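Subject: Protein record for review, amino acid sequence with backbone structure tokens
How to read it: Take the token row as a discrete description of the fold.
Enclosed: The protein record, placed directly beneath this head.
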Amino acid sequence: MSPKDRKPFKTIFRRMMFNVNVVLSGCAVGFFAWNATSYIKSRLLDHYTLSLNAWASYYYHPHDASLFNYVVLCVAMALYGLVFYVKTQRNSVRYVRKKSRTLGNRYPLLLLLSSALFFVLLNRHWEMSQRLLMSLYLLFILFVPLKFIPLKRYRFRHLCDVKVSMCWRDILARHKGNVLLLLTFLLLCVVSVEPLKVIKGPIYVMNEFKNIYSDTKINGTYVNNRTFLDSIEKGTTGKAEISEFFAANDKEYFHQNASWGPFNHIGHILNPLNEYISGKAPADVYMQYGQGNTLLYKWTMELFGGMSLDNFYKCYIFYIIYSMLYILLLLYLFRDKLYVFNAFAVYSIAFFSAGYWVFIHAPGVIPTIHLFDTTVFLFLLLYFRRNNLVFLVSAIVLAALSIYMNRQFGLVLLISLGAACLPYLWETKQGKERYTLLAMLVLLPLVMLAAPFFKTTANASSTLFYFLRGYLSWRPDPDVVFLTIVYLVVSYHFLFLIRRQTHYLKYAFIFVFIYSQGLLTYFFWSGLSNHLMPVIPFIGLELLLMLYISKELIVKTGGARIALTTGMVLGTAWLAFTCNNAIGEFYKSKRIYTRNFTQHRIYQWDFDRAKIATTINPEPFRESIALIQKYRPQENSGIHLLSVYDNVLPFLAKRYSMMPFFEMQWFVFTSKERAEAINRLKSQKPEYLFVENGISEEHPDPWAPYFNAPEINAFRKANQERRLELGKIFTAVEDGYEKVEEGVLLSVYKRKSLYAASARH
């Protein structure tokens, strides 16, 4: 290579190392923010304790909770991006020179070796103080400038001498759009298959109640589980039958101890609706998933005949509706169908990666919770491209309506809209028009949210206090933390690269980036991987938008375009492979789920609000419903119930619980909630009290000797303790009541004063 050729490559190398340094230094800032937050939080937690009941302690992980870590990380990344932007704007030449003289840039090998410490920082077994010191070391390597040291002349092969084949361009040019659109449509059909099957029915529900024993098929004959367990104790059962029995009940028993089945999860939709239509004070109705979202389920179920557990699954139609809206957005955003296919492939991977168990049980992942985000984004794109004010107003109205649907997701959407529109209006409008539109952007949402329509019922209760402090929070996967920090740094760096653009794609990128950051809060609040699934489509969309913007606005040379196209083709192949694997894992989990129904007796429920196929014997529920209706004959009235069946019995009996929460076993976190429930019973003095039999007694679990893993033991213990907490509430008021009738599951107690008076008459 001639001296003349070395100079451009020396410049290219310096630029490359500068960009590597910028990205890695941003990562160092991110890790420092994350680790510093963890360190400070751990020190504060040494002096702070939350006196939870024993059962709740299993679900309380304040040290592992990462919500505050993520919030601090986002703030630190935003500040780092702002400082970098200001520095380069004011004196870019001086700043770049100073940055290129840092220890990391002067010694590339040291820079690359030090970058390996990012992975060490994820190791949970290292002390927090040690991880914090590593973060400080990285900040030193990547930020501290040294005296200028000439770079050695590295020899590279002249890239221009490498002839790149044009075959990719030739292949993709022929019928590419039609083929990719067809593949996208086929993928939409694949995504729609399971929602359509669920909508069609029948609905299969696994037994989630420990004290109602299922019947298991052993050697072709159904045997009651309790009877079989007793026979094992007596030694009258063979080893082969025992092995078959426990293999058949492995999933269902775990399901019962976790108590996270459809009656628990879907109950957070059905029970609030039951209270809402029954006339309970709206301020007392707890709607975890948002009032508008919850009422949308009600209106949808009414189209299919009314509110019921089986009709809830008709709401899975929104999976298909949302998927179609998402494709419509992609078609308008990307002119290249290759990007459309890839973006929808990412969406499909997220859908299938959640698994069948989450799909069939969890209303929190159904897209209704953020139904309008694709439409808002589409209206924004129309406004950016056509400059028609109607589209902007439509986007603002829908974003505000999203807050009515769900406060958390709606607020993230509204903030993202503002983050995209503010720079657009400032950079593309002038004079009076600019300030008028900016004022409208700020004031219109505030005026709308002040309207009586947006005075929603409480979708956050005192449970929020515990959630923010680490209840139901687990440590997120360290790989996800690492990738999140890299993702934020790369996104801010890309935003810096396109800062001078006024193309509509820049503002589209800002919207998706801010929205993705907001959605990640949903994941880092819990740390559970299934909460990551609603976020992945938008992160994938943002990364593809980076590549698309690079192709449209940044990449100029033919060689770079070929490299980008080749990378996209390889990425498409990888996404197709990953999507195929995700589909395979989804149906593997479905086979495990459906196998349970071939190994147990299936009962057909024909209640007005539950026409399902299930392994739960309906007779105990039928008797309990009759008992409730006998002593509380008025439909849509309130009852006072202390039972682990309170998430299903009032709903089936068309009554609602008058207790502080519709599922009390998950509400009594501390003695405070127990006292609240006791005070309610003492102040309201109900005539009748419905109580689960033996609720104050600790019952031995006949399954315990055979399922002895640490996780199942913890679930079992928590399950028993939740029930005993309900027993403590009953014990506090028991003296004022006398049993008048006993059923299989429930007993009815009448207030003694009323009972004595009626006896005298």
